[in-house]
Specification:
- It is a single chain.
- This protein has ten helices and 15 strands.
- It has 327 residues and is of the alpha/beta class.
- The chain has a single domain, classed as UDP-N-acetylmuramoyl-L-alanine:D-glutamate ligase, CATH 3.40.1190.20.
- Strands 4-1-9-10-11-12-13-14-15 form a nine-stranded mixed sheet, with helices on both faces. The protein has a four-stranded mixed sheet with strand order 3-2-7-8.
- Strand 10, helix 6 and strand 11 form a beta-alpha-beta unit.
- The two termini are 23 Å apart.
């Protein structure tokens, strides 16, 4: 695309800054990491870290580090942590002028346990504060949504709110499935919507199983962990390997992946967006934190000078007659 087309840039030209609206959760992350192999039903020696997280907030943070202009739409918890998270977002350069604070003192939390190798053992998410992000709440922020070059929404929002976005957002819309428990909201949202289509979906393999047969997304990015990334578009499948890295924590890897994909721009090709996503994901999992400051040092020249090579890049049509579940 032309370099003059804001929001439709490719790796070949990043002269413009994208405006991105990110919609979804912002919460307190409590991450417990076992020092040795995790033993179920026992007390495990390790470390505990408290940080600011949430899928949407993490994506917004990553995009700011990449140099994009970001507006976050969320409802912060009304307890002691909410104002602190809001202030931290503002300090990072994330726009929060159109956010609200839960009136009832509700806080949002994500508590997770990681094994000694950084892999997630399990977690619990309390995201009740986001229930206030109704279609009516979003409609009052329509100018912010339509003023963006791209819009990202996580599945912490209700199916009704996601359906409203599918129908009313004219900008390229990226949806993040968040978890197996919440992925079904995207299927329900498509069913509830009139338009039935949106630009891109990001999910992991488990979430993708829940969304098997889903129609309506132009491009589907499926993270398959250590195996890398699969991308489906127009009846074709691309498979990209995970980049070499030393994993310290997988928490936040998927958020960084989607941030890189969005940062590449809606006009980027499959390979370009995959490279940005995988580079950002590598930075995230090599860090003990959900968001790595190292992401801001990724250079366009790295992408241009290190293209995927065969057999790293594999593209193949699906067997004739296979139902892709794609629109």
């Amino acid at each position: 695309m032309s370099s003059a087309t804001t929001g439709m840039r490719t790796i070949a030209n990043f002269e413009t800054t994208m405006k991105i609206c990110v919609i979804g959760g912002a919460n307190v992350d409590i991450t417990a990491s076992s020092r040795d192999a995790f033993r179920v039903g026992d007390s495990n020696p390790g470390s505990v870290e408290v940080s600011w997280g949430g899928v949407a907030r993490n994506i917004a943070h990553n995009l700011c580090l990449l140099g994009d202009e970001v507006e976050l739409l969320t409802i912060f918890g009304g307890g002691v942590f909410g104002p602190v998270i809001a202030a931290a977002c503002r300090g990072l350069g994330i726009g929060i002028d159109h956010c609200e604070t839960a009136p009832d003192g509700t806080n949002s939390f994500f508590v997770c346990i990681n094994n000694a190798d950084g892999e997630l053992v399990g977690g619990v998410a309390d995201m009740n504060a986001t229930e206030g992000m109704t279609p009516q709440w979003l409609s009052r922020r329509m100018a912010v949504i339509e003023g963006a070059d791209a819009v990202v929404a996580d599945a912490n929002s209700s199916a009704e709110s996601l359906a409203w976005l599918i129908d009313n957002c004219s900008r390229p819309l990226y949806l993040d499935a968040v978890s197996v428990a919440k992925a079904g909201r995207i299927r329900e949202a498509v069913a509830l919507s009139r338009r039935k289509t949106f630009f891109a979906l990001k999910c992991n393999a488990l979430e993708n199983a829940v969304l098997d047969g889903l129609s309506g997304c132009r491009r589907r990015y499926v993270s398959v962990g250590a195996e890398g990334l699969r991308v489906e578009e127009d009846g074709r499948l691309w498979e990209f390997p995970a980049l070499p890295c030393l994993v310290r924590s997988v928490t936040g890897g998927g958020d960084a992946l989607l941030a890189g994909i969005v940062h590449a721009g809606p006009g980027a090709g499959v390979e370009e967006s995959a490279r940005w996503g995988l580079e950002c994901a590598r930075c995230a999992v090599e860090s003990p934190h959900a968001v790595s400051e190292e992401i801001k040092f990724i250079q366009v020249s790295q992408m241009r000078n290190n293209p995927f090579s065969e057999p790293e890049r594999r593209q193949s049509p699906f067997p004739e007659g296979r139902d892709l579940g794609m629109g």
